[in-house]
TrEMBL record:
Keyword Signal in record: yes
Signal sequence segment: 1-30
Keywords, alphabetical: Signal
Transmembrane segments: none
Protein name per Swiss-Prot or TrEMBL: VOC family protein
Domain VOC span(s) in chain numbering: 62-175
UniProt keyword annotation of Translocase present: no
Top-level taxon: Bacteria
């Protein structure tokens, strides 16, 4: 692994958002849904110092969803639910929404010609944090999914790579 990537990974980790973006009505329904866990920690005020003037600027608080094109959205959504436990955008009042655990989220553009994602036609890669990389890899392999676990342990944790049924790259990360 190159020094540049190792250095980048020490600073960054890929993970996505606090929830899905919902319309005002759907958001109100979700807030009233007793199966939705309450967020015990209020979000920090999203303000940052503007570098050039020293004034405070509003900033986003997190990623609200990941939206991408798929050849077969229903089948791909089912694959993510069955193998990674990710609930899709709710379509009914009593449908669950994926709740992720708090943790680092990285937003990092890669060079256009990076080979890190594999297929050069794939424009994105998602990284999911996991508690037990070996257990997750074994679970996926049992389901017939090829997973390549990086044998090296880095200062920020361990990594594995796989692809969803449409060839989209996925990285799994077990933090140190």
């Amino acid at each position: 692994m190159s020094f540049q990537r190792r250095q980048l990974l020490q600073i960054l980790s890929y993970a996505f958002g606090a929830g899905f973006m919902l319309s005002r009505n759907e958001s109100a329904m979700a807030a009233q849904n007793p199966t939705q866990p309450a967020n015990p920690v209020p979000p920090a005020k999203a303000v940052a110092k503007h570098v050039s003037t020293g004034t405070e600027r509003e900033k986003v608080a997190g990623i609200g969803g990941l939206f991408f094109r798929a050849h077969d959205p229903d089948a791909l959504g089912l694959w993510y639910l069955q193998h990674l436990g990710i609930e899709l955008t709710p379509t009914k009042e009593d449908s669950p929404v994926w709740q992720q655990e708090a943790g680092p989220t990285v937003f990092s553009p890669f060079p256009e010609k990076t080979g890190y994602f594999g297929d050069p036609h794939k424009l994105w890669m998602v990284n999911f944090r996991v508690h037990d990389l070996d257990k997750m890899a074994a679970q996926l392999r049992t389901a017939g999914i090829e997973v390549k676990v990086d044998p090296q342990t880095y200062p920020n944790g361990r990594f594995a790579h796989l692809h969803d049924p449409e060839g989209n790259p996925i990285e799994l990360w077990q933090p140190s």
